Amino acid sequence: MGLKPLSDRVIVKRKEEQEKTAGGIYIPDSAKEKPQGGEVLAAGPECKTVKAGDSVLFAKYAGSEFAVDGEDLVVMREDDILGIFA
Predict the structure, then answer these.
(1) Which is nearest to 16 in space by CA: 61, 55, 66, 64?
(2) For 35-73, how does the pLDDT look when each residue is reduced to its tens digit (9 = 90+)?
(3) I need a surface site. Which of 15, 24, 26, 76 has the fewest CB within 10 A?
(4) Nearest to 81 by CA among 52, 57, 54
(5) pTM to 2 decimals?
(6) 28 CB contacts (<8 Å, ≥6 apart)?
(7) Dihedral-angle region of residue 36 (phi above 0 means left; psi in -120 to 50 means alpha; beta otherwise)
């Protein structure tokens, strides 16, 4: 990926959406919600707590979505990240 975020911004790839529930029920496309978690692909130079490779949880409507090389990505401020998975 040839995109580098500026200041305190991060680029996140969302996790894959679940096709079925734990009980075995398949979820139709119209009922699926966008996942609120993902993997940080790149972090700007002013990011203090998040780095590339971290799995994060972010706010539902955080950031701006865009596509690069056929991948759907989200760019957001570090403040929009709610937590890092250990």
Answers:
(1) 55
(2) 789 999 999 999 999 999 999 999 888 899 998 888 889
(3) 24
(4) 57
(5) 0.82
(6) none
(7) alpha
- Distance CA(10)–CA(75), nearest Å, equals 6
Write the single-letter amino acid at 33: E
What distance separates the 2 farthest-apart alpha carbons in the chain? 43
Residue 41 and residue 78 in contact, taking contact as beta carbons nearer than 8 Å:
no
User: Are residues 43 and 77 in contact, defined by beta-carbon separation less than 8 angstroms?
Assistant: no
Q: Which domains does the chain have, with CATH numbers?
A: 9-16+32-84 (2.30.33.40)
3-state DSSP of the chain:
CCCCCCCCEEEEEECCCCCECCCCCECCHHHCCCCCEEEEEEECCCCCCCCCCCEEEECCCCCEEEEECCEEEEEEEHHHEEEECC
CA dist 42 and 22 (Å) reads 32
